[in-house]
Amino acid sequence: MSATDTPAGTPSRVLIVVTHLLGVGHLARMAAVGRAMAAAGMEVTIASGGRVAATVDTTGCHRIQLPPVHCVGTDFRTLYAAPGLVANAAHLAARRDALIEAFDTVRPDALLTELYPFGRRSLAAEFDALLAHARAATPRPVILASIRDVLNPPSTPEKAEGALATLATVYDGVLFHGAAALVPLSASWPVPPALERRLIETGYVHDGARTFEEGGSDGTDEVIVSGGGSAAGLPLARHALAAAGLIPERQWRLLVGSGVPAEAFATLEAEAPANMRVERTRPDFPALLARAALSISQAGYNTVLDLAAAKARAILVPFAEGAEREQTQRAGELARRGLVRMLAAATLTGAELAAAVRVALGEPRPDWSGIGRDGAARTAAGVEAAIARRRAANDAFARLEATLARARTAGRTLAFWWRDDDAVAPTPALEALLAARARWAVPLSLAVIPARATPALAERLAGETQVDVLLHGWAHANHAPAGEKKAEFGAHRPLASMIADIEAGRARLDTLFGTRVLPVFVPPWNRIAPELVERLPALGIAALSTYKRRPPDGPAAPLRLNTHWDPIDWRAGGGLVEEAGLLDGLVRRIEEELASPPDVLEPIGLLTHHLVHDGWIDRLLGEVMDRLLASGTVRFISPRVLLAAQAERR
Asked: Which top-level group of life is the source organism from (predicted)?
């Protein structure tokens, strides 16, 4: 058992961090997820940062109440510790400290942050402190964001970019509690490929555990009006009072959330017409919906799933104050599919609502079967799988460190080199690459595409040290016939044409980069015709660089200087290769070196492609480089040194 292993049979520990600021929907959803995880055998702790919500069922979970905060209306920037009392620095610091203490007490295998970093930016300080603490933990937990089907779109591109940067720096994945076939995340939030690859689609999470007395009759053939748990539903409630008065022949029932003050509740009760009963929200709300003739509500996540479970007719009046767009997006998609009728809150009147009720009551019940509601169980399975992947990666890192320690004990120096392909011009990605090289203070070989290389790239590299330029084909153009693996210098091309391209490429790189260019040929896609290899020395090419170990019985010239470790999952279309397998591949290369006499094998080559990296690739690369450089046994060398040594031997 490795140092990072958990003994067999030990339940996985999960810490869920959630803060509801208005109603209790966020907490209710995560409570449903927590109960499903507990039912699957996990030990679940829910750290709740909103106001105490005794009605939310957290059976099977340990619940920690943080010093609470809430907001008023749609002002999510101003946080209140109590009614009328703005949360001060001491209150927020107490929340942060309580989160850190909860983490240290639970020592979770998985940390879930609800909504952050897509939202809850007013709580960024406490989340960031917790995430930094979690990242430094040993063993490191898997860190997942948890989001609903529809988000409030970012108000600026910078906010979306900032969220993605935080995800790539800290998180392993994003639990998407929705269904892309119904409402893709891209409908409300920018989803670049890097984020798409990290989404774990769970389906909708329905709080189906709420129980009620069978055989009841409350709600039968009634119009049920509900506005969520907070005062945000009061405008809808007032319109419902007016509408009910216009349809006296139908019994109505208005359910008022626990967050609505007693005075407002009393006013609604006093002003309700004779055919409307006014009550506080009831735990048997799903049963009322199932028996009702029609539901009128906002379009919150949990409410919509209750409607789907009840197969209810529904009129949705989405909450849309301030910058809120989430409910409007969700309701609009459901209306487009013919599942609900949608009315705009901003222009709603009692008469309009009454007219919509009359129409809806004459329609058949919609078919809600297309909305699956098993997301809680699927989330539990997804988190358990993510925990397994994180444990495997942690163990692989431990094996890497142990192998490096063995090399150090044996007094071996492990030679590495670094090649990055496809440079053509200055880009933000190139800037990040050069900054990383400077931070690690290691030599870098840029494989530059001659036909596409720009003078601007030469100007950008002019002031760089320890950066060499290699000849990366000619135009990085695929000449292979359809159905064959891509190649620019494969056996299907005339030899003379390929020789001409190499000569033109050398001339162009020499003109642009001068002495920075090394006589090393890097064929695109790492494929080259054998007959061309034999001609390379005559073309002034001293070394050939492809991928995988050089053949032990290969010719002495050109020198084979291959790469052996590539973090990109090309077969999947990009993104990071599964971490444990990637790390173990590097361990095998080091073990091969240790099993051979010194200087027999070529240096271990790291291969990167800066133009297609995402933050997760860069993070893993940084973690590997930090360990290699801290080992005291790894030395990065430039092909320039190897070529000079080869020349001396001749």
From this structure: Bacteria
